[in-house]
Amino acid sequence: MKALWSVPGLALVFALLAGCVTINIYFPTAAAEEAARAIVRDALQLPEGGEAAPAPQSRAPAEDRVAVDGAGAPVLAWVLERLVSPAAAQNPDLQIESPAINRIRASMRERAPQLATHFRSGAIGFGENAEVAIRDLSEVPLRDRAGLQQLVSEENADRDALYREIARANDRPEWEPRIRETFARVWVEEAPSGYWYQDGGQWRQK
User: Fold this and answer.
1) pLDDT tens digits along 64-117
2) Exposed e or buried b for every residue in 87-119, given b needs 16+ CB within 10 A?
3) Which of 74, 110, 170, 197 is close enough to 126 for a disulfide, judged by CB 3.0 to 4.6 Å?
4) What is the distance between the alpha carbons of residues 27 and 174, in angstroms, rounded to a whole number?
5) Structural domain boundaries of the chain?
6) Could you give the CA distance from residue 92 to residue 205 in angstroms, rounded to a whole number?
Protein backbone atom coordinates (compact mmCIF):
# COMPACT_ATOMS: atom_id res chain seq x y z
CA MET A 1 0.00 0.00 0.00
CA LYS A 2 3.08 2.29 0.09
CA ALA A 3 2.46 3.25 -3.51
CA LEU A 4 -0.76 4.93 -2.40
CA TRP A 5 1.21 7.65 -0.64
CA SER A 6 3.55 8.36 -3.52
CA VAL A 7 2.93 11.58 -5.44
CA PRO A 8 1.09 9.79 -8.25
CA GLY A 9 -0.88 7.78 -5.70
CA LEU A 10 -1.97 10.87 -3.78
CA ALA A 11 -2.82 12.62 -7.01
CA LEU A 12 -5.09 9.72 -7.94
CA VAL A 13 -6.86 9.77 -4.58
CA PHE A 14 -7.51 13.52 -4.67
CA ALA A 15 -8.57 13.35 -8.30
CA LEU A 16 -11.10 10.66 -7.45
CA LEU A 17 -12.40 12.60 -4.46
CA ALA A 18 -12.76 15.79 -6.49
CA GLY A 19 -14.06 14.20 -9.69
CA CYS A 20 -17.40 12.75 -10.70
CA VAL A 21 -17.69 10.23 -7.90
CA THR A 22 -20.91 9.28 -6.17
CA ILE A 23 -20.36 8.40 -2.53
CA ASN A 24 -22.99 7.17 -0.09
CA ILE A 25 -21.46 6.34 3.27
CA TYR A 26 -23.12 4.37 6.03
CA PHE A 27 -26.78 4.95 5.31
CA PRO A 28 -28.38 2.72 7.97
CA THR A 29 -30.72 0.81 5.68
CA ALA A 30 -32.07 -1.64 8.28
CA ALA A 31 -32.57 1.07 10.90
CA ALA A 32 -34.29 3.32 8.36
CA GLU A 33 -36.71 0.57 7.39
CA GLU A 34 -37.50 -0.24 11.01
CA ALA A 35 -38.10 3.45 11.77
CA ALA A 36 -40.25 3.93 8.67
CA ARG A 37 -42.35 0.88 9.52
CA ALA A 38 -43.02 2.15 13.06
CA ILE A 39 -43.95 5.62 11.82
CA VAL A 40 -46.14 4.31 8.99
CA ARG A 41 -48.02 1.91 11.26
CA ASP A 42 -48.61 4.77 13.68
CA ALA A 43 -49.75 7.14 10.92
CA LEU A 44 -52.08 4.55 9.39
CA GLN A 45 -53.28 3.56 12.88
CA LEU A 46 -52.63 -0.11 12.21
CA PRO A 47 -53.03 -2.55 15.12
CA GLU A 48 -49.88 -3.84 16.75
CA GLY A 49 -48.96 -7.45 16.18
CA GLY A 50 -50.61 -7.68 12.78
CA GLU A 51 -49.22 -9.67 9.92
CA ALA A 52 -45.77 -8.37 9.12
CA ALA A 53 -45.01 -7.12 5.66
CA PRO A 54 -42.62 -9.29 3.67
CA ALA A 55 -39.05 -8.26 4.30
CA PRO A 56 -37.37 -6.82 1.23
CA GLN A 57 -34.15 -8.33 0.00
CA SER A 58 -31.29 -6.70 1.84
CA ARG A 59 -28.46 -5.08 0.00
CA ALA A 60 -24.91 -6.10 0.63
CA PRO A 61 -23.37 -4.30 3.61
CA ALA A 62 -20.56 -3.00 1.43
CA GLU A 63 -23.07 -1.24 -0.80
CA ASP A 64 -24.47 0.68 2.14
CA ARG A 65 -21.04 1.54 3.41
CA VAL A 66 -19.40 2.79 0.24
CA ALA A 67 -20.95 3.08 -3.20
CA VAL A 68 -18.56 4.43 -5.81
CA ASP A 69 -19.13 5.14 -9.49
CA GLY A 70 -16.03 5.42 -11.63
CA ALA A 71 -12.51 4.07 -11.80
CA GLY A 72 -10.29 3.61 -8.78
CA ALA A 73 -13.00 2.29 -6.51
CA PRO A 74 -10.69 -0.02 -4.50
CA VAL A 75 -8.30 2.83 -3.64
CA LEU A 76 -11.08 5.21 -2.72
CA ALA A 77 -12.85 2.56 -0.68
CA TRP A 78 -9.64 1.89 1.24
CA VAL A 79 -9.34 5.60 2.09
CA LEU A 80 -12.97 5.98 3.08
CA GLU A 81 -12.90 2.92 5.33
CA ARG A 82 -10.22 4.70 7.36
CA LEU A 83 -11.95 8.08 7.40
CA VAL A 84 -15.30 6.84 8.73
CA SER A 85 -15.61 6.15 12.42
CA PRO A 86 -15.57 2.39 13.20
CA ALA A 87 -18.33 2.99 15.76
CA ALA A 88 -20.58 4.45 13.05
CA ALA A 89 -19.91 1.43 10.87
CA GLN A 90 -20.65 -1.13 13.55
CA ASN A 91 -23.68 0.54 15.17
CA PRO A 92 -25.77 2.17 12.46
CA ASP A 93 -28.85 3.85 13.83
CA LEU A 94 -31.44 6.42 12.82
CA GLN A 95 -32.75 9.12 15.13
CA ILE A 96 -36.50 9.70 14.74
CA GLU A 97 -37.17 11.67 17.92
CA SER A 98 -37.24 15.47 17.89
CA PRO A 99 -39.86 18.09 18.76
CA ALA A 100 -40.44 18.78 15.05
CA ILE A 101 -40.81 15.09 14.15
CA ASN A 102 -43.18 14.49 17.08
CA ARG A 103 -45.39 17.42 16.01
CA ILE A 104 -45.55 16.14 12.44
CA ARG A 105 -46.43 12.61 13.54
CA ALA A 106 -49.21 13.94 15.82
CA SER A 107 -50.63 15.93 12.91
CA MET A 108 -50.58 12.85 10.65
CA ARG A 109 -52.30 10.70 13.30
CA GLU A 110 -55.07 13.28 13.65
CA ARG A 111 -55.65 13.31 9.89
CA ALA A 112 -55.51 9.52 9.46
CA PRO A 113 -59.23 8.67 9.98
CA GLN A 114 -60.30 11.12 7.27
CA LEU A 115 -57.69 9.83 4.85
CA ALA A 116 -58.61 6.20 5.57
CA THR A 117 -62.14 6.76 4.27
CA HIS A 118 -60.79 7.98 0.94
CA PHE A 119 -58.10 5.30 0.77
CA ARG A 120 -60.81 2.65 1.13
CA SER A 121 -63.01 4.23 -1.54
CA GLY A 122 -60.11 4.42 -3.97
CA ALA A 123 -60.32 8.18 -4.32
CA ILE A 124 -56.70 8.45 -3.21
CA GLY A 125 -53.69 6.16 -3.09
CA PHE A 126 -49.99 6.06 -2.41
CA GLY A 127 -47.83 7.86 -4.95
CA GLU A 128 -44.39 6.67 -5.96
CA ASN A 129 -42.71 9.62 -4.24
CA ALA A 130 -43.86 8.61 -0.72
CA GLU A 131 -46.78 11.03 -0.84
CA VAL A 132 -50.55 10.69 -1.22
CA ALA A 133 -51.96 11.09 -4.73
CA ILE A 134 -55.53 11.68 -5.84
CA ARG A 135 -56.60 8.74 -7.98
CA ASP A 136 -60.31 9.19 -8.74
CA LEU A 137 -62.28 12.24 -7.61
CA SER A 138 -65.48 10.72 -8.97
CA GLU A 139 -65.51 8.58 -5.81
CA VAL A 140 -66.09 11.77 -3.80
CA PRO A 141 -69.28 13.88 -3.80
CA LEU A 142 -68.77 17.13 -5.66
CA ARG A 143 -69.27 19.21 -2.52
CA ASP A 144 -66.43 17.32 -0.76
CA ARG A 145 -63.79 17.38 -3.48
CA ALA A 146 -62.16 20.66 -2.52
CA GLY A 147 -61.93 19.44 1.07
CA LEU A 148 -60.22 16.25 -0.03
CA GLN A 149 -57.71 18.15 -2.15
CA GLN A 150 -56.91 20.35 0.84
CA LEU A 151 -56.57 17.28 3.06
CA VAL A 152 -54.13 15.64 0.63
CA SER A 153 -52.13 18.87 0.33
CA GLU A 154 -51.78 19.09 4.12
CA GLU A 155 -50.79 15.43 4.40
CA ASN A 156 -48.13 15.77 1.72
CA ALA A 157 -46.74 18.89 3.37
CA ASP A 158 -46.36 16.89 6.59
CA ARG A 159 -44.76 13.96 4.79
CA ASP A 160 -42.24 16.19 3.03
CA ALA A 161 -41.41 17.83 6.35
CA LEU A 162 -41.12 14.42 8.06
CA TYR A 163 -38.52 13.06 5.63
CA ARG A 164 -36.57 16.31 5.81
CA GLU A 165 -36.67 16.45 9.62
CA ILE A 166 -35.52 12.84 10.00
CA ALA A 167 -32.50 13.60 7.84
CA ARG A 168 -31.88 16.79 9.80
CA ALA A 169 -32.22 15.04 13.18
CA ASN A 170 -29.39 12.73 12.09
CA ASP A 171 -27.22 15.62 10.80
CA ARG A 172 -27.35 14.00 7.35
CA PRO A 173 -29.44 16.19 5.01
CA GLU A 174 -28.07 14.18 2.08
CA TRP A 175 -29.98 11.15 3.40
CA GLU A 176 -33.38 12.70 2.62
CA PRO A 177 -33.79 10.99 -0.81
CA ARG A 178 -32.91 7.59 0.71
CA ILE A 179 -35.33 8.17 3.58
CA ARG A 180 -38.08 9.11 1.14
CA GLU A 181 -37.31 6.04 -0.98
CA THR A 182 -37.58 3.80 2.09
CA PHE A 183 -40.89 5.34 3.15
CA ALA A 184 -42.32 5.06 -0.38
CA ARG A 185 -41.85 1.30 -0.23
CA VAL A 186 -42.99 0.86 3.38
CA TRP A 187 -46.21 2.87 2.95
CA VAL A 188 -47.31 0.35 0.31
CA GLU A 189 -46.07 -2.71 2.20
CA GLU A 190 -47.96 -1.73 5.34
CA ALA A 191 -51.13 -0.53 3.61
CA PRO A 192 -54.26 -2.60 4.25
CA SER A 193 -55.62 -4.79 1.48
CA GLY A 194 -57.73 -2.84 -1.00
CA TYR A 195 -55.67 0.36 -0.89
CA TRP A 196 -54.34 1.68 -4.19
CA TYR A 197 -50.74 2.56 -5.03
CA GLN A 198 -48.77 3.70 -8.06
CA ASP A 199 -46.28 1.36 -9.67
CA GLY A 200 -44.40 2.46 -12.77
CA GLY A 201 -46.95 5.20 -13.36
CA GLN A 202 -49.89 2.75 -13.21
CA TRP A 203 -52.44 2.41 -10.42
CA ARG A 204 -52.64 -1.01 -8.78
CA GLN A 205 -54.82 -2.25 -5.94
CA LYS A 206 -53.22 -4.12 -3.08
Assistant:
1) 444 444 455 555 555 445 544 444 444 457 899 999 999 999 999 999 999 999
2) eeeeebebebeeeebeebbebbeebbeebeebb
3) 197
4) 10
5) 1-25+66-92, 27-49+95-205
6) 35
